[in-house]
Amino acid sequence: MANESLKHAKALLFDYMGTVTDWLTPVSRAFAENAPPGATQDWVAFAHKWRGQFFTQVAEINKNNSDFVSIHDIFDSTLSQIQAGTGLEWDKETREALIRSWGGLLAFKDSQEGLRRLREKYTVVILTNGITKKIIESNKRNALDWDLILGSDIVGAYKPNSKAYQTAIKILGLEPSQCIMVAAHAYDLEAAASHGMRTAYIKRDTEDMDVNLSGYSFDVMIAEGGLLGLASIICD
């Protein structure tokens, strides 16, 4: 065990998009496949911009204590925001295809075996800003097995809203210190830690690209190996 603070842990709660699965490949590919004639955008950068705008809007929703907004509506409005001023035009059908690309998540190569090993010792749970139905479909396609899936539509909030973590802990019937939040996003783990949860940071090349991690403290940091790297530390 890498850290004594983890020895009483019983459940692992995983962020999904960017931690367990690759969102960038399917979304940037959808942009490229649906590019308007003559478009010369860097679609990888454009996909990152879309996701960044998603986080900005979620932060506004949480800050204003707004009523829950569906993730589809957030993706739709943020697509319009990043589209503005670019000259890019997509019809309604194509916009829906772009939004659906977020459901085409691809498991990282370490995720299936890493999750299998982790599940032998811990209850494994998804705590995601995604919608539960789409996450279930993604897991079937990627052959990933979980004990529980908690989408934003189930907990009624988007991380890092306190309600997301508190609801998950309550559903599991555990103490916060018995739960390890696993994510490739420092903001997610910082919020989880504020509720007494333990934290495991998974380094992914597509995530936290502009975040200075020296300002954060995690119970365990996995610099390489993803979920297999985590399993090698907390399962042995």
TrEMBL record:
Keywords: Hydrolase
Pfam families linked: Hydrolase
Top-rank lineage group of the source organism: Eukaryota
InterPro entries: 2-HAD, HAD-like_sf, HAD-SF_hydro_IA, HAD_sf, PGP-like_dom2, S-2-haloacid_dehalogenase
GO molecular function: hydrolase activity, acting on acid halide bonds, in C-halide compounds; phosphatase activity
Keyword Phosphoprotein: no
Similarity remark: Belongs to the HAD-like hydrolase superfamily. S-2-haloalkanoic acid dehalogenase family.
Name this polypeptide is given: Related to haloacid dehalogenase, type II-Burkholderia phytofirmans
Top-level taxonomy: Eukaryota, Fungi, Dikarya, Basidiomycota, Agaricomycotina
